[in-house]
């Protein structure tokens, strides 16, 4: 359970980015965090992972608190972070080394390392590329390697911060499929995204607006009841079709009635 308790954050005093933010993400949840550009989504993600510390309030993973230096490393070990640009994370020369590097950092016993790395590469269908150079892979493959490097460390929560935004449709689909299957396997997924189609995948949507939570709940109610355009967000295609059909439903009802009166079944 990851809890934000009255979190306030600013980069520059007097210019708050997040104000008095409180919510809890339960183990096994799949939550999307959405909001207009610059509303503080990435800042929130970094606070959740302990990359940034709140100016006021607390971020806790169960009883561990990011503001206690002795507990921060434990929290960071239990939460994985996938960035927008996987290349920012690559520092070694092969895919396998990239995954092993993370394991070395968290001091996994040497005899366990190769097995864990292979298992993680298999989970993202990249084991055949273990000896490839990361920089020669496609965008989607690079992001899958970045995910494997995180998976090998066996986190409980993975935060995807705009992790699909640089990918082509196929790469995006592959990463979304991985997120879905990780969620099915019990992993807690926090997905920060601009893409409302992707947000629809989540079971819960949190909308950030002007440093506060403007919505926290079901994705269907979110798209149905909220003036989504007011937040500079686009409705997913499927929701637009659904709303259009619903608007036209009276016409269809009349049409059926007209058919029934014109050609009554005797
Ligand atoms: N390192 C930084 N130093 C100073 N200000 C920053 C820094 N990082 C972000 N900001 C500012 O904090 C605010 C929130 O930024 P953040 O990147 O968290 O928003 P976001 O919702 O993720 O944006 P986007 O959707 O454009 O990625 C913005 O006004 C941004 O300019």
TrEMBL record:
Domain ABC transporter: 2-235
Family: Belongs to the ABC transporter superfamily.
Name assigned to this protein: Energy-coupling factor transporter ATP-binding protein EcfA1
Keywords for this protein: ATP-binding, Cell membrane, Membrane, Nucleotide-binding, Translocase, Transport
The keyword Membrane is assigned to this record: yes
Gene Ontology CC, one term: ATP-binding cassette (ABC) transporter complex
Subcellular location: Cell membrane
Gene: ecfA1
Membrane topology: Peripheral membrane protein
Main location: membrane
PANTHER family per the UniProt record, alphabetical: ENERGY-COUPLING FACTOR TRANSPORTER ATP-BINDING PROTEIN ECFA1 (PTHR43553:SF24), HEAVY METAL TRANSPORTER (PTHR43553)
Record flagged with keyword ATP-binding: yes
A single MF term (Gene Ontology): cobalt ion transmembrane transporter activity
Signal peptide: none
């Amino acid at each position: 359970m990851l809890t934000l308790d009255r979190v306030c954050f600013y980069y520059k005093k007097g210019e708050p980015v997040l104000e008095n933010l409180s919510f809890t993400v339960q183990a096994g949840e799949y939550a999307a965090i959405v909001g207009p550009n610059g509303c503080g989504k990435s800042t929130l993600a970094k606070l959740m992972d302990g990359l940034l510390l709140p100016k006021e309030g607390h971020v806790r993973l169960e009883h561990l608190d990011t503001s206690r230096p002795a507990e921060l490393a434990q929290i960071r070990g239990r939460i994985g972070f996938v960035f927008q640009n996987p290349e920012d994370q690559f520092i070694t020369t092969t895919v396998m080394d990239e995954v092993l590097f993370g394991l070395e950092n968290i001091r996994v016993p040497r005899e366990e390392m190769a097995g864990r790395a292979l298992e993680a590469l298999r989970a993202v269908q990249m084991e055949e590329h273990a000896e490839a150079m990361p920089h020669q892979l496609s965008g989607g493959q690079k992001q899958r390697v970045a995910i494997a490097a995180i998976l090998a460390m066996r986190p409980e929560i993975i935060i995807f911060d705009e992790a699909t935004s640089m990918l082509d449709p196929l790469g995006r689909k592959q990463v979304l499929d991985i997120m879905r299957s990780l969620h099915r396997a019990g992993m807690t997924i926090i997905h920060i995204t601009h893409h409302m189609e992707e947000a629809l995948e989540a079971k819960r949507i949190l909308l950030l607006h002007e440093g506060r939570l403007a919505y926290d709940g079901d994705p269907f109610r979110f798209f149905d009841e909220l003036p989504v355009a007011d937040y500079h967000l686009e409705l997913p295609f499927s929701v637009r079709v659904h709303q259009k059909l619903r608007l036209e439903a009276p016409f269809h009802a009349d049409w059926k009635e007209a058919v029934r009166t014109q050609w009554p079944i005797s």
